[in-house]
Amino acid sequence: MDLGKVTTHFDALVKFHKTTSQFKTKAEEVAHVRGVVSKLQQALQAREKLHRDSLLRKANYAQSLVLTLQTVSDREVHLATVSCILELLGQTKSGQRARIFVKLGGTQAVCQAIASEWRSPTPNEALLLQLHLVLAKLAPKDKRLATKARLCQCAPVVLSLLRHGLSTRGAESLLRLLRAYALSRQSSTSLGRHGAVQLLLRLLSESHRGVGGASTGASAAAAGRRQPLPGGPARRAAEALSQLTRARANASRAITGGAAATLVELLNASVVTTAAASASARQRQQQQRTYLLRAIVHTLRNVTASKAGRAAFHSAGGPASLYRHCLAGPASSAGELLNAGACIILRQSAPRACLPAPSLLSPYTPALLQLLVSSTSSAAAAVAVASDDSADAAAGAAAAAVNSDEDDSSDDADVQKQQQPSDEFADDAAVGGADPRSAEELRAAYGHLEPELSDCCTCCPASTAPLTPSPSLPSLDGLALGQPTEPASATEIGGRLSVSATSALLAPAAAQPFARSRSIGGWPEPSPATTSAAPAPAAAAVRSVAEFAITAGPELVSVSPPPHREPCGTRRSECAMELMLDDARRWIDPSDVLNRVVYDLDAIVAEQHQQHQPPPPASDEKLSPIGSGSVDHLTFESRFESGNLRRAIQIREREYDLLLCPDIGHRGQTQWFYFRLANVQPGAAYRFNVINCEKPNSQFNCGMRPLMYSSREAQLGRPHWLRVGTRVCYYRNHYQRAKQAGTKPYYTASFSIAFRHSGDICYLAYYVPYTYSRLMADLRDWRLLASRDASIAYHQQWLCQSLGGNRLPLLTVTAASASEEPRQQRPCVFISGRVHPGEANASWVVRGLVAHLLSSAARTLRSRFVFKIAPMLNPDGVINGNHRCSLAVVDLNRTWLAPNATANPEIYHTKGLMSYLCSSGRRPVVYIDCHGHSRHNNVFMFGCSPSLSWLPDDRDNPGWLAAEPPANDNEARRDDNGVRPVSGGPGGGVWIEDPGYRELPRLLAQMAPAFAWRNCNFKVDRSKESTARVVAWRHLGILRAYTLEASYSCCDQGPYRGCHLGTRELEEMGARLGEAILRWAQGEAPGADPPPAQQPASAASSAAAGSGRAGRRRKVFRPSGAGAAAISASDDDDGDDDDDDAGEEEEEDTDDNGEESAAAGERGGDVDPNSNASAVDAGPGGSGDCIIEDESVLLCCRSSFVREPEGENCSASVL
Predict the structure, then answer these.
(1) Is 1063 helix (H, G, I), strand (E, B) or coil?
(2) Which residues contact 221 (CB under 8 A, 6 or more apart)?
(3) Where are any strands of DSSP class E within 398-534?
(4) What is the average per-residue pLDDT within 100-121?
(5) Is the pLDDT assigned to residue 426 strictly greater than 70?
(6) CATH number, domain at 149?
(7) How far is residue 795's CA from residue 786's CA, in Å, rounded to a whole number?
(8) Which of 779, 781, 776, 797 is nearest to 464 (CA)?
(9) C-alpha distance across the termini of the chain, in Å
C-alpha cells in the first residue's frame, strides 16, 4: 500500500471533524469515525517504511488525532487512535515528533482519556497501557506534564497498574511516567501518600532477588509469585525513587520502609551480572548497571540527608559497602560520576564532629583583649571580641547538634556587626564620607607630611617629626618590651567579657633573638652578616600580640625569586575523589589511624600564661627537637612573624591534618598559612590537609600550588621560595561549625610534598611572605639607594601608630630639581597597599613600584609627579599572621566611610592625609589601592563608572562632565563607551560620563604582560561604598581611583600564560604601573576605546569651581589634540556617616563575594584587540576563574553534578 492511502484516510478524518453535523445520531458519528480510524491504523501498520516527518508536517493530520481523543468517547476509537499516534511517533528519535503533539494539546488529551477510562465501570487495561505508552513518549517534551496529570488525577492509575504487574515494556513506561510525575513537588507528595515509595521499594527488593540469583523468573512463576523486574525497569524504578525522595516527607517514608537496607543490598548485588552472548549485549548490560547505580547513589544522597537516614545507612553497613564499591569501580567517566556521588554520601554519613580545636577563637584572643583594655581607652575596648569561654560553650553546643548540610553564604557576625549598610544611604550617599575636620585642623595634623614643599631636595632619613598620634591611644614607646602589663580588672572590662587575670605580652621578635650560632638540623643557618637585604635586623621595631619564639629562616637570608618561571600544576579530575575516599577510610577502617597531636599552639600559649612569663629565648634546647631522628614525626612551628598554624595532627605515618589560626579575635577568616616543619625524610611524599578553610572554592583547584622554602637549598646557594606539591586539590570536608559561628561548611586544601633532603628545615606558605620586618629592611635599603642619586627627593616619615604600637611608614618620592615643574605644582599620585594582611602579593607590587621610582629609568616620572606611598596599612595583621582583619577585629577596607580614630588609626590618618591634600588644592590625580585576589587569574583593576553605579542618577562623584544640550533629536546621544547622556545638567544641559578612568587600565593592558583588561570591572556596588576605592572616588573627588588586584595563582594570557605569578612578575608589574602613569601623563593614547589620555593638569587648573553637590560644574583640562581626560577639582564638604557598608565578606577581592568580571556591557567595553590579552574563551569572570557551572565528573559543594570544564586552567570542581 502506498502513502496515498494513508493521506486519504487522514483527509477523511480531517473532513469528519469539520463536518460532524452531517450525522443524525451519535451512533452514526461514532461508527463513521471508527471505520476511518481503523482503516488509518491498518494503513500505517502496513507500511514498512513510513515517512512520519512528512506526515506530521501537515498540522491537520496530528490535530485530527488529538481531536479524536478529545471528542469521541469510544473505547475502540481510542485504541485505534492511540495506535496511530504510536506509529507516527516511532520507536526511536521521536523527540521532535513528540514536540508537535505536545504543542497541539496531545498531553492534555491523553491525560483526559486516561481519567475517563479509569472512571468507567470496567476499565480496559490494554487501552490504559497504550495511553500510558503514548504519554511516556510525550513526557520529556512537556514541562507541565506533572501538573496536567495531577489535575486529571492520573497518578493513582499508574500505581494501580504497577501493582497488577505488567510486561517489561509496559512497566518501564509506567515507571518513566512515575518519575516525570514526581518532578512536581505537589505531585511527588501526593504519590508518597498513595504508597508510591513502598511500591517502588518492593519492586526493587524483588529485582534484587532476581539479580542476585535467589529466584529466577521461571521459579517465581511456578511458585505463584511476582516475576522480578528485569534490568531496564529496575533502573526506572530506582530513578523514580530517587526523584520521589527529594521531598523530605517521601525520604522519611523511604527510611521507615527500609530503603537504606534495600539499596545497600542492591548495591552489593549490582556486581553480579549474567554472561552476555555478544559484546554489544555486554555493553548494554553494563550501561543499564551504570544507570541503576547512579539512581541508587542519588537516592542514598536524599536518604542520608537526615539524621535518621544516616543512622539507617550505618546500620545496614552502607559506608563500608559504598567504599568498597568505589574502590572497585570502573576507570571511566561514568565510574567517576558514580564515585563523586558516593563521596558526597560518605561525607554526609561521616560522624558529626567539630574542628579538633578547643575554641573557635585564636589562642591569642585573651592577650588581644588585655592589650585593648590596658593600652587604650574604653572606646577601643568595645571592639567586638568574644571571649574564649563563649567560644568553648559554642563549640560544646555544636558537638551535640546535627547541623544541616545546606550551604549558607551569610557572613560571620563578628565582622559584620560594625559594617552594616545604612538604610538611608540610598537617599544621600555623599553624607558621611568627607573628613569632618576643618582645613586648619587637617593642616595642623598632616602639614608636616608634605616634605616636597620644603626647600630640602635631597634624600631625607626617617622623619624626626612626632608620630601623628591616635586620639585616646597612648604611645607604647614607654612600655618595656617583653615585660607583662598590669592585668585588667573586672571594672575595666565592664563585666561584658570574662578574661582570666593573666598578663598580656607585647613580644617582639627582637626580645627573643634566634640563636643563629647553634646548629639547627645538622648545619648552621646562614649568617645575616653576609646578607645585607635580610630583614632580621629590622625586627626590633616589631610589636606583636602573638608570642614569637624564633625568627623564621627566610628572614635571615636574602631570598631571591627562582631563576625560572614556575608552571601551574596539573591534576587529575579524580584526585579529589581519591582524597575524599582516603578521608572516609579514617572512620570506616581506622586500623592505621594515629590521630596524634604533634603541635598545639593553644597548649603552648596556655602553659606560658599559667606560668606568667614570656616565652624563653629561642634555642635548640628550648624548642622541640627538629634534628633528624630525634622523633618519629614531623615537627612544626609557627611562633614567628606572620606565622600561622594552630595545630598539627598526625593521622598516618606520612599524613598530617593542619588547623590554621583565625584572625585574632575572630571566629573565622582562615586562608593564610605560614609555618615551619622539620625532621623530614626524603622518599615517599607527605600529605598535608588544611582542614578549616572557609571559601567555597580555591585556585588550588585550578593549578595553583603552595610555596616552600628549604634551608638546605638556601645553604647550597638557592634561597628561593618554590612552588611545590602534587595531588593539590580543594574540597568540602565533614567538619561542622558551631551555631554561633554560622552554618557554612569547612573545606580542605590538600597537597602532597616529597622532600629532597633528610632532616631539612622547610617553611610552607600560601604565598611568598612579605613581613613588616622585611618592609623595615626595604625602607633602609631604599633610603640608601636614594642617597646615592642627588636627583631623587626621597622622604621617609611615619604616618601614625597602629593599635598594636607599630608605626606606619609613609614614603614621598619625587625629583629633587625643579627643571620640569616646581615641586609644589606637581600633581600627586597616592598608592596604598596591604590593608589585608594575608595579601602578601600586594606588597610585592608596591615593592616593585618603589624600586622603579628610585631607578634612573624613572627620572622623567619623578619630575612629573609626587608619589605618596603607604606600603602597609595593616602592620598589626601582617605581624600576627592574620588573613583579613586588624587587631580591632574589623576589615579595615570596610571602615573608610567613617574610620574610628581609636580603633582604626591606620585608615583614619590615611584618609585624613588624603583629605588634607584635597583641601590644600593638591588632590591626587590617581589613587591605587593594591590587593591580592584568590579567585581570578592575572592582574587587573577595579575602577568607578558613574553609569554603572548602584545609585540611580548618581551625581555624587567626579565621573560626570557638564555638557551643552544636544542640538536636535537626530544628534548622536551616546558617547564612545555606549553611555547615554543624562539630563539635568546646569543651564538645561546634560551630564556625560568622563572616560578618563579607563585610560590607565588600557595602558597597563598594552604594557604589562600579566595585566588583563577583560578582568577589569568598573561597577560601583552598594556593598563597596565603604571601601578605599569608592570613598576616594565619591567623597574625595578622585576620578582615577582604582583597586589593583594581583592573583595569588597563575596568568592565563600572554608570555606568562600557564605560569605562576611570582615575586619577579609582581615587581615587574609595579614597574610597569609607574611606566603607564608616565605614558598617561604624556598623553599617549591607550587605544580606540576609551579616548586617549592627556597630560595631567596643574594644581591651579584643578581648583574647585564650586562647593555644592547638586548642579556643580567641574573644570576640565583639555589640551589641544591630547584627548579628553579630566582631573576632578571639586571639594568634599559633607558630614560623616555613622555606618560602614560591608554587606559582603570581601572587598574586591579575595573572597567568595568579590567583584567578578561582568559582561562586556558591565565592564564598559570589549577586550582590547591591541592588548596582549589572548582570545581564549574566558567564561564567567575571565579564563582561569574557579567557577564551575557544567555537569559531569565531579559534584560541587552545593550537591549538584557538575562537569569538568574544558581547557587547562581549571581542572576540577569542589566536592
Answers:
(1) helix
(2) 227
(3) 460-462, 519-520, 523-524
(4) 91
(5) no
(6) 1.25.10.10
(7) 9
(8) 797
(9) 60
3-state secondary structure 859-905: HHHHHHCEEEEECCCCHHHHHCCCCCCCCCCCCHHHCCCCCCCCCCH
Assigned domain for 420 exists: no
Domain co-membership, 740 together with 811: no
How many CB atoms are closer than 10 A to CB 223?
8
Q: Is the per-residue pLDDT at 1168 higher than 80?
A: no
In order of 175, 528, 594, 681, 817, the CA distances from 553 in angstroms are: 67, 10, 30, 19, 42
CB 665 within 8 A of CB 887: yes
Contacts of 435 (CB under 8 A, 6+ apart): 442, 911, 912, 915
Residue (of 711, 356, 706) closest to 550 by Cα position = 711
CA distance 841 to 1048: 7
Cβ contacts of 533 within 8 Å, gap of 6 or more:
558, 777, 781
Does residue 351 form part of some domain? no
Residue 669's alpha-carbon distances to 384, 692, 880, 1004, 1153, in angstroms, are: 15, 10, 13, 32, 14
Q: Which amino acid is at 474?
A: P
Q: Which pLDDT score is estimated for 1175?
A: 32
845 and 733 belong to one structural domain: no
Q: Which residues contact 237 (CB under 8 A, 6 or more apart)?
A: 175, 200, 203, 204, 207, 229
To the nearest 10°, report the CA torsion of 550, 556, 561, 566: -30
206, 1045, 1068, 1146: the catalytic one is 1045
Angle (CA) 556-557-563 rounded to 5° is 150
User: How open is the CA angle 236-237-239, to the nearest 5 degrees?
Assistant: 65
- For 1034-1069, write each residue's pLDDT tens digit: 999 999 999 999 999 999 999 999 999 999 999 999
* pLDDT tens per residue, range 675-715: 999 999 998 899 999 999 999 899 999 899 999 999 999 99
Same domain, 848 and 748: no
The pLDDT of residue 1156 is 37
Q: Which domain holds residue 39?
A: 3-209+230-273+280-317
3-state DSSP assignment of residue 794: strand
The reported pLDDT for the residue numbered 328 is: 78
Q: Based on the domain organization, do 100 and 196 belong to the same domain?
A: yes
| Helix 155-164 with 125-138: angle, nearest 10 deg | 120
Q: Is the pLDDT of residue 209 over 80?
A: no
Query: What whole-number distance in Å separates Cα of residue 455 and Cα of residue 458?
Result: 9
Choice among 122-126, 139-143, 377-381, 753-757 with the minimum mean pLDDT: 377-381
Q: SS3 of 1182, please?
A: coil
Whether residue 809 sits in one domain with residue 708: no
Last residue of a domain, one of 1081, 1116, 1138: 1081
> Is 804 found in the same domain as 785?
yes
Q: Rounded CA gap, 515 and 622, in Å?
A: 11
* Residues 49 and 106 both lie in one domain: yes
When the pLDDT of each residue in the chain is averaged and rounded to a whole number, the result is 74
Whether residue 256 lies inside any domain: the answer is yes
DSSP state of 951: S
What mean pLDDT comes out for the span 1140-1148? 37
- Residue 288, domain member (yes or no): yes
Domain count across the chain: 3
Residue 534 has what pLDDT? 59
Supply the pLDDT for residue 1042.
Answer: 96
pLDDT of residue 951: 85
* Cell numbers that stand for 768 in this block: 611568598
Q: Give residue for cell 606611598.
A: 869
Look up 694 and say whether it is catalytic: no
Mean per-residue pLDDT for 74-89?
89
CA 204/CA 218 separation, integer angstroms: 18
CA atoms of 440 and 437, how far apart (whole Å): 8
Share of the chain above pLDDT 90, in %: 40
Q: What share of the chain is helix, strand, coil (3-state, %, to 5)?
A: 40, 10, 45
Contact 854, 948 (CB under 8 A): no
